[in-house]
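// run 5 | inverse folding | seed 20
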């Protein structure tokens, strides 16, 4: 299964790998999940401080625009209260912000050959 490089998941994946971290993916019902980063699970992705579709939309189907803010965080399952937009690091249950990134022009303009990236770390 491939991830569109310009999708939210594609951009996050590239940035996480550039930081030297290792993402792992799970695949079910045509949906790709970011299962873990460096073996740590319970990860949430945010677009402009909000979970896309209140957490119901897969990140590989979200296509951010120039200037959008992407965040990837570890959360404490059962404690996170969905208040990331307002409080970021001080949100109840947010353990670590893995990545806070603003979408840039080069994230959205890609060579034809680089329009998709291949997931190799499926669970």
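// decoded
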């Amino acid at each position: 299964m491939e991830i569109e490089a310009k999708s939210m998941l594609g951009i996050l994946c590239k940035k996480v790998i550039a930081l030297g971290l290792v993402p792992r993916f799970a695949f079910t019902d045509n949906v790709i999940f970011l299962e873990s980063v460096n073996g740590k699970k319970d990860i949430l992705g945010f677009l402009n401080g909000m979970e896309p579709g209140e957490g119901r939309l897969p990140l590989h189907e979200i296509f951010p625009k120039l200037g959008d803010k992407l965040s990837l965080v570890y959360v404490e399952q059962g404690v996170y209260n969905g208040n990331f937009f307002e409080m970021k690091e001080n949100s109840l249950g947010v353990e670590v912000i893995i990545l806070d990134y603003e979408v840039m022009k080069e994230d959205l303009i890609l060579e034809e050959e680089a329009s998709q990236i291949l997931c190799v770390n499926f669970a």
